[in-house]
Design goal:
- The chain is an alpha+beta fold.
- Helices cover 53% and strands 14% of the residues.
- The protein is built from ten helices and twelve strands.
Amino acid sequence: MTRSWPLGRLFWKLFSAFIGALAVVALLVTLVFGLIGPREGGRFRPASVLMADTVAELLQQRGPDAATGLLQVWQARGERLPWVIAADGRELLGRRPPAERPTGLRIVDPQGVEWRVIEARPLPPPGGTHLPPPPFVEVVAVLIGAMAFSALLAWYLSRPVRHLHRAFDALAKGNLDVRIAPLIGRRRDEIADLGRGFDRMAEQIQHLLDAQRRLLHDVSHELRSPLARMTAAIGLARQDRTRIDAMLERVEREAGRLDALVGELLGLSRMEYDSGRALPQPVCLDALLREVVEDARFEASTRGIRVDLVSVPATVTGHVELLRRAVDNVLRNAVKYAPPASSVEVDMVLDGARIRIAVSDRGCGVAEEELERIFDPFFRGVRDGGSSGAGLGLSIARRAVMAHGGSIRAINRDRGGLRIDIVLPTEDPVSLPA
């Protein structure tokens, strides 16, 4: 069983790391100042020592006048000045020397006069003597501040990870509506990107599961109808022996529809399986288009339909069988709904970094509100009428095109008929999902 830590284990790891790093830095800084910094009564006083050393050096090198000028400048700025006392007790600035005269620094100026430079002492606090704090107080103060800062920083960094943990648990329990972005807010870092990536993953899983449920519902509905008609035909044949031949013909026709439906479903499943296993490769699209059009011409010739092709040399990176199935399904759909003795036009042109394939017929077109839905599995609109197809051809085509990073859409022609545009990129290789 996994042990539960308050605020999460990541928080405490980050907190400990920050505290350790800051503690080491504080100790090193204290040690360095203890080694190089002058002390008085256990208290660091580098400023007063520096001023006394500067005055002593100036007095020794250039004499009392130079030292007096420097002391007057510091006096005007309100600094606490070191004492500079001659051997006869005279102070350089005329101040009264301190009652207690520490030894200080003994200096001889260029004229041979001896001086003592005494470091300025801090003023004692009112009402008593000044007792400097012990040296570890500074370290403790630094550690307390470091703990507060580290706790805040660790909480800030580990908070989205805790949200992710709860979101993954919710997703594993079947809650597909869980999202991280509202909890992350306006964060712009790698952890926030991970949360937004989780949202995209959850949305994709939800979309795929919804599509799977719709597909199962549609498949069950499509299978139920021919099975019900077959059952009814068998019942009628048993009741009336004279209609056995007609009912057997009916059963045979419904069995053919079931076979076509199962075949298209297997083709859809096979397409998704192949897209995850086959490696993308260069595909000569104009040659593939000529092969598909030649096959369609053979089928269309029985109804007197002409299939015209206008293409240009073009190459894409992808899977040849998926592209063949996409174009073939769209072209066969156009031939299917084209009026007898009419024509179907297939045009392929280059549009910058894209290839556009347009397949047009002279049929009755599609209602405007159905232009997007004709690519849904098992959808049949007014145009289909009594069609015996399963309604998966255009759905398979859309999946194949989108797997190649392209797009597909349907447009009603001005002079009647339907045009389906397939747009494929030519620059980047595709990366199909498994």
